[in-house]
Task: structure prediction
Amino acid sequence: MLEANKRDVREFLPEITLDRIMPPYRDYPFFRGRELYPFRPHASTFDMVNAWWLVEASILAYAGKKFASPRFGDAGFNEVEFFDGAITQCYLVNNDDFLILAFRGTEVRPKPGTLDFRNVIADIEADLKIRLVASGQRGKVHHGFKDALDEVWDKKSLFARLRDKDNGKRTFWFTGHSLGAALATLAAQRYGKVRGLYTYGSPRVGDLVFMTGFPVKTYRFVNNNDIITKVPPAGRYHHVGALKYIDSQGNVHEEADTLEDAATDIQLGISAFQDSLARMGSGLANLIPQAIVDHVPILYATYIWNSIP
Result:
């Protein structure tokens, strides 16, 4: 698709089947195009190239170290560290110019080569702990998300490694998809000295105080009717960051978040349920409701790649 000195073809959308709802995508060419569009570590405003790099890192965060490490290495990261908890996994990768902290999203299948569903159950339990608790910095946050980050922040020395790499020259960028987006948001609040936070399909993370006092420039991608971006319901919970909304045609818009209300969240859930019933009645039960398809990370990556100027 890519020629030596130009990009002249849009990436085609992949077919979303049950086995491709979530990563890892073993056949996906991670960071293809990096020579034409290198990361811009000193960007001070939104940057679509950086959005593409960070969504690629967010997808790769779903993979095990044996698969992910060489792909991060091929992208120019000479240091790759993996932090692994019962709920949380993340990669800390860097070169001399910048660092990316990418958190894994919710797992929906057992680890490759096993029938052990404990990782899936742990993620679901974290997602369901929706009671608001003190963040430790400012405002209140989702209990399950906070517990998940705590697994690696001090217990696995993630915070210490961030401080070790903070030499004043290297810029820091945090990212994640789904649950990973929520954890990246909490981590950015805790660390503070983050150049940019880019999230994809993020649930709401904290209350109004958490949102209004958030210390990091944040850009939040929502693909069409992605159902995960509507939970927990609005009211007690609020989203963080500037919305980058991807419409049904794959076009990225900068607009105010007009969907921040509980009634819209409920209506979307009803629509997704009705969509499922309609598909079953048409003999298409194997097809996936659109609100769930819209959450698939490879779609975020494709739409963002196609939007690079």
User: Anything to note?
Assistant: Residues 1-6, 114-124, 279-285 have pLDDT under 50 and may be disordered. The domain at 29-306 is CATH 3.40.50.1820 (Rossmann fold).
